[in-house]
Structures are given as C-alpha cells and as structure tokens.
Design goal:
Number of strands: 31
Strand content: 35-45%
Number of helices: 4
Helix content: under 10%
Mean pLDDT: 80
C-alpha cells in the first residue's frame, strides 16, 4: 500500500501561491499573518532568512513559511536601504534593516515583503500607478478582480493574469537596479484594497508606490506617494530652523584649523576694532549664511549675499567665521537632505544630534556621502570611525554633503576661513539627493526660509477619523508648487 500525505491548509496555500513561469498566471492569497492595514496605514509582512530572492515566484513562496517574519505598518510605501533613493525622499527603513536610521549601507538582502492597504478613490476614472524599485514587485487591486488596462516602463514590466482575471496584476518579475514602471487602471469611486508584493535579492534595495490621475507613461510632477504627505525630489519643504549664532574670527594665518580652534575655545579678541588679528571679532544673529566681502566678493554665482559681520571698508583678509543653528525635523519630514556649501576659502559643515555645546567634538549624525569641487572631503570629527562632516581644503566651488535625518532636534555647524583675495560663504539645503546646484531646488538654510507647503498625495489611504477630506487636500495641492525628482 502506498502511503499518501494529507495536504495541510498551509501547504495548499503555498502551492496555490506559486507562479509556474515569469509570464504565466498568478494564483495568490495573502498569508493569514499579513496585516491588512487600517485607517491611514499600510500593513506589512517582511520575511527574511528564507533563501535567495531572485524573482516574484521566490517571494510568493517565501511569504508562506520559514525564515524570520516581521510585521508592522507604515503611512506609505517608500522604503530605502541602498542604491538609488527613487523619486521621493520620505525614505523609511525596511523592517529588517539593522540600522537605527536609513544609512545607505547595503545590509538588507534576500527579503520578501507584502504591503496591504485600502485607498479611497474620490472620482471614478483612469489612474496611473508607478513603482520605482530594486528589485521586483506585483501589484493587484481587489484580489485581482479589477484589471489593469496597460503597462509600460523599464526592463519589461507587464500585466499578468491574477486569480483568474486577465491583466489582474501589474508585475516586474525579476531583478533590477532602481527604475520606474507604470500601469494604468480604471477605478470606480470608493474604497479599494490592494496587495503589493516586493522582493529584494542582492545589492541595492528600494521600493516606492506612487500614483497620478490620468494615463501617463513617464514620471512627472503630478505623481505623489500613495498615502501620507509627499516630498518630491527638490521640494523645498524643510524642518524648522532657528537663527544662526555667528562669530567672526580674525587670525594672521587664518587656516581652517585655527578658525575651528578659536571658535571652540571662544578665544577673546586681541586689539581693538575691525579684523585685528587675534580672536573673536564680533558675534551676530543671522537668518541665513549667505555672506560676502563687499570690497572683494566671491560668491560663486550665488545671489543675495550680505556683508560679513565685522566687515571693514577695506578688502578684508585673514579672517573666518563660524555659526550654529538649531534644526527640528517633524514626523513626515524625515529623509535624505543635501546641504550645499560654497566658500572662499575652506570650510567644514556637520550636523549633530540635540543641543551640543560649542567646543564639543560630538558629530552624531553620520555623513551619508559627499561630493563636489574645491577638494571636497569627508571628515570624522568625533573619532568614532565614521564620517560626520564634509568640507574643502581650498577654494572655490560648490560642495555637497548628504544626511539622513530622522524626526528630532539637531545642531548644524558651519565654519570657514578666508586668507586672501575674494571672500564668500553660503550654506544651502534641498530635500533629496543632488550633485549639482540648482537655484530652483536649493534654498539658504535659515529662519523664515522654509515655508513651502507640503503636498498631499494624489490618492490617500482610507482616512483616519477626523482627517481632512481628499477633495480639500486636492484643492490645497493645486495651490502648492510641485517639483520633479
């Protein structure tokens, strides 16, 4: 007699979840422990340590057993670990990311994830859903019963039969670096559930889900993340910045190390008036750092500079300055920020957690990356083995340093030196990842500068009780400036 094993419900579900081929039919029911999401939230199940994740078949199989299973919620799908940061910069950490904040370090690999939620569609019509991902994904609405009408994008994204519905899913099957894919679907007004599976094999890992009204084949500035409030690349929405407490410093040598030492030790002025060599010349409270010497300005093409505190009627040389300002990042404003500094001559810039006393070697926020001209370098100011500052060893170019900032309070510090010739010192910021200066994206960092309205997403999750209606949010969105990534 031949013994036969009675299939268990889990085994039946597992077999049913498998896709026979990349372009074949998909039969899939979410695992019972995958959260469905709720008011204003997306449910997440992330599975690790369950073999190699090379494609969506591997992901669907992995979601049904083995490995380490982590559940959670999020207000939108914009998860980043490494590789490109995608179209938006609201970056959240993957649940299995061992880092305490998004760091850009490749330490999330071979994961399978399902995101589940419910969107509210206020007006029936055609909508385009976009996915920027590294690696693959599958998106289906109402368990696949609402078919997509078309798809396009990088590296062969396509529509698939899903639970018996032709074109019931939008899928990129295998692996890729961060790239866009788009699909169009006609949705009735009302609430619609969605299931979105994602896999990450090796290397970079990132995924975003965004949407816009209408039929679109390329990304433009009408797209926003599904759910939450979105920062598009280059958006000027920024944290709350206090005034810069700035100290002008004089020195016969005026190298950067001397400026840092005199600032940290609060060396008193020697002599009387002007830029007499010896120490601190004057202090000032500044809204921004956009400074130049009117008698011999070198602003690098930047506009709006004012005279250095302590300026004299002469072409001032052998001096420097240092300033600190507080920065508060509210929930929803977290993500990658690029600080751009122009100086003649050298400078150092860093971001520190909390209210750090002058003279402290603390540099708590690690530098994500740095680039630019003028001998741009990454620096370790606190001896912990990680770079926390960026700067230059000479004149004169834009330099860029990037920091991943979580909600909380920070202290920014900027120090520069001027030896001879022209003089200028400018500190800018933009939300996102940038390597070149664009005056339409960057703004001077300071009090009163950061006033742009946050842009509500085009399609919201089913709202939490008491939230503003989507119709009002859409009206506000039309009044806000939107910028492309």
């Amino acid at each position: 007699m031949q013994l036969q094993l009675r299939p268990t419900p889990l085994l039946i579900a597992l077999v049913a979840s498998l896709t026979p081929a990349a372009m074949g039919q998909i039969t899939f029911t979410p695992p019972v422990d995958a959260p469905a999401g709720g008011s204003g939230t997306i449910g997440i199940l992330e599975v690790t340590n369950n073999g190699n994740m090379g494609d969506q078949n591997n992901a669907r199989t992995s979601l049904f057993g083995g490995g380490t299973r982590i559940t959670g919620t999020a207000p939108y799908i914009d998860f980043y670990n490494s590789d490109g940061t995608g179209r938006f910069h609201n970056n959240l950490s993957f649940l299995s990311d061992p880092s305490t904040a998004v760091s850009g370090v490749d330490d999330v690999n071979n994961i399978a994830t399902i995101y589940r939620g419910t969107i509210n569609v206020p007006v029936a019509g055609t909508y385009t859903f976009g996915v920027n991902s590294d690696d693959g994904f599958t998106l289906a609405f109402a368990n696949g019963t609402i078919p997509f009408i078309s798809a396009n994008g990088a590296n062969g994204a396509a529509l698939q039969t899903y639970n018996g519905t032709a074109n019931g899913a939008f899928q990129f099957f295998g692996g890729r670096g961060t790239a866009d894919s788009f699909a169009q679907i006609t949705l009735p007004a009302g609430n619609h559930t969605f299931d979105f599976t994602f896999h990450e094999g090796g290397g970079g890992s990132a995924v975003e889900l965004f949407a816009a009204s209408g039929n679109k084949s390329v990304f433009d500035n009408t797209f926003n993340l599904v759910g939450g409030q979105a920062f598009m690349g280059g958006g000027k929405a920024f944290g709350t910045v206090g005034t810069w407490n700035y100290k002008a410093i004089s020195d016969g040598n005026a190298d950067l190390a001397s400026m840092i030492s005199k600032y940290n030790n609060n060396v008193p002025t020697v002599g009387v008036g002007g830029l007499t060599p010896g120490g601190l010349v004057t202090t000032a409270n500044l809204a921004t750092i956009g400074l130049q010497d009117p008698q011999n300005a070198n602003n690098g093409g930047h506009t709006g500079g004012v005279a250095f505190p302590g300026d004299t009627a002469a072409d001032d040389n052998n001096f420097g300055g240092a300033g600190r300002a507080t920065l508060s990042i509210a929930p929803g404003q977290e993500g990658l920020y690029t600080f751009a500094v122009y100086s003649d001559d050298s400078f150092r810039f860093r971001v520190m957690e909390g209210n750090v006393p002058t003279g402290s070697s603390s540099g708590d926020v690690n530098l994500f990356s740095a680039s630019g001209g003028g001998g741009t370098v990454s620096l370790n100011t606190d001896g912990d083995g990680a770079n926390d500052a960026f700067g230059t060893t000479g004149c004169c170019a834009d330099s860029f340093g990037r920091y991943m900032l979580a909600p909380g309070d920070y202290t920014m510090e900027a120090i520069f030196n001027e030896q001879g010739g022209g003089a200028g010192f400018f500190v800018y910021v933009a939300k996102g990842n940038y390597n070149t200066f664009d005056p339409n994206l960057f703004q001077l960092v300071g009090a009163g500068e950061n006033t742009e309205v946050l842009i509500p997403a085009g399609l919201q999750l089913v709202p939490e009780p008491g939230t503003v209606s989507l119709g009002l949010l859409s009206a506000l969105a039309l009044l806000s400036r939107r910028r492309r990534a």
